[in-house]
Amino acid sequence: MDKLHEECGVFAVYGHPEAANLTYLGLYALQHRGQESAGIAAGGGGTVYCHKAMGHVADIFTPPVLGSLAGEQAIGHTRYSTAGDTDPGNAQPFSVTCNKGRIAVAHNGNIINATGLRRELEREGSIFQSSCDTEVILHLVARSRERTTAGALREALLQLDGAFSLVFLAEDRVIVARDPHGFRPLALGRMELSGGRVCYVFASETCAFDLIGAVYMDDVAPGEMVIAGPEGLTRERFAPESPRAYCVFEHVYFSRPDSYVFGRSVSETREMLGRLLARECPAEADVVVPVPDSGVAAAIGYSHESRIPFRQALIRNHYVGRTFIEPSQAIRDFGVKLKLNPVRRLLEGQRVVLVDDSIVRGTTSRKIVRMVRGAGAREVHLRISCPPTISPCYYGVDTPDKRELIAANSTVEEIRRFVEADSLGYLPIGALREAVGDAAGEYCYACYTGAYPTELIHVDDLLASRPQRF
Ligand code: AMP
């Protein structure tokens, strides 16, 4: 079955003699978007080399491996894990040889009609190597009667429904595209090379540009395809205008705070979330403590607004992956202690405002509340910098089934009791909208409202294939 492959990072370079090395660095900066597997496909002069493996970017790409990825063009991908789905065959990029030459693709998002498209393709004789929806794109491109790769890709993209920010390598060209709603981010940057040459780079988040010294120029627009080739940069719209649906969760949690996402500073947005949270859900307390790292920026905002001192009273061990990538409950339980430890001296006898970005199942939050209380806190007031998460995401964020979302099945008071906090406050949706500056209604809030911006006619397929992880 098609797997939702979600929460990924993509990167691409056009026109740099060290394309694979830059892609390696770019993926390094995007590691937080997926830690299960990573891959790079590099090409130029009629060849495409691809290397992908399970694990972290820094472990996979040793100097000899990078040395073998020759060419001035490259695309890369980091992929998030799925429970029981540790099949290296699902690692990206996917690369094939077809009548369009040697091509490779990597993708962030979730194509919601992939199962249907795949069934049709299989009926007509296509053979799939993986359970990933991304492979569908390659088959559509390979089958297209269009003469050029860009034309074939355009035709393929028009058949896709859902969320995709994708990077595509066609020997001497890099082509990228973003779905017409713009669910997932995709930024465009440039670097000047010696001799006046210009190199173009693309990344899920701009923090990848900072590392390689590229300048952030713009976002790839929703419904836009950008072709970087010998003729320079060509930008074109491949699909008619659709209502925008930028994923608000990128700002709430997923992206790095040093990135610009959808043209906004993530750090600034998160601080504003915290400020508004302090106004909407005040607390009488002595200290504001973030759950690191997800709650840090919002806690700073909360502290500024409330004038309650900020204290880093939970210390994170940075050498442990995010607890949510651990697939089994047993490991996850252990994971909280492995990852966080309280600073007793800062918590003893204190009334604590504990700030985090979200509650999903509530189990981690409860452990953290217990940990803070166990370290001597007199009161624990939990503040969450987004509204209650009541509906799963079908566009590329890994939220569990509705049955497991605590806020889908409980009142705020019931959740407060479950997590054992003295009080619990969530940011209202209006304030979230204000923090991301969404006057024009361009964001997707489906996880907080249950109102999905696309038809979900394929949801049964999606549910059947949905891995249970987080
Ligand atoms: P829990 O209390 O078990 O619901 O876990 C809440 C924690 O999970 C918070 O610290 C969040 O930062 C984190 N979190 C929120 N959304 C996700 C997600 N999609 N995947 C993994 N972790 C998440």
Description:
- The protein is of the alpha+beta class.
- It folds into 2 domains: 9-245, Aminohydrolase, N-terminal nucleophile (Ntn) domain (Glutamine Phosphoribosylpyrophosphate, subunit 1, domain 1, 4-Layer Sandwich), CATH 3.60.20.10; 270-317 and 334-435, 3-Layer(aba) Sandwich (Rossmann fold), CATH 3.40.50.2020.
- The protein is built from 18 helices and 23 strands.
- Strands 3-2-4-1-10-9-11 form a 7-stranded antiparallel sheet. A 6-stranded antiparallel sheet has the order 5-6-7-8-12-13, covered by helices on one side. The chain has a 4-stranded parallel sheet with strand order 17-20-21-22, sandwiched between helices.
- Helix 5 (134-143) packs across helix 6 (149-157).
- The radius of gyration is 22 Å and the shape is globular.
- Adenosine monophosphate binds at residues 253, 291, 294, 324, 356-365, 397-399, 470.
- The site of adenosine monophosphate has 18 residues, from helix 13.
Concise structural overview:
The protein is of the alpha+beta class. The protein is 31% helix and 26% strand.
Catalogue the unreliable spans: 1-5
Second-tier CATH architecture of the largest domain = 4-Layer Sandwich
CATH class of the largest domain: Alpha Beta
Report the bound ligands by name, code or SMILES.
adenosine monophosphate
How would you state the average pLDDT, rounded? 91
Biggest β-sheet strands, sense, barrel: 7 strands, antiparallel
CATH fold label of the largest domain? Glutamine Phosphoribosylpyrophosphate, subunit 1, domain 1
Number of helices: 18
The strand order across the widest sheet is 3-2-4-1-10-9-11
| Whole-number total of structural domains | 2
Radius of gyration: 22 Å
Strand content: 25-35%
* Secondary structure category: alpha+beta
User: How many beta-strand runs?
Assistant: 23
Distance between the termini: 19 Å
Residues in helices, as a percent range: 25-40%
- Overall 3D shape: globular
Could you give me the name of the CATH homologous superfamily of the largest domain?
Answer: Aminohydrolase, N-terminal nucleophile (Ntn) domain
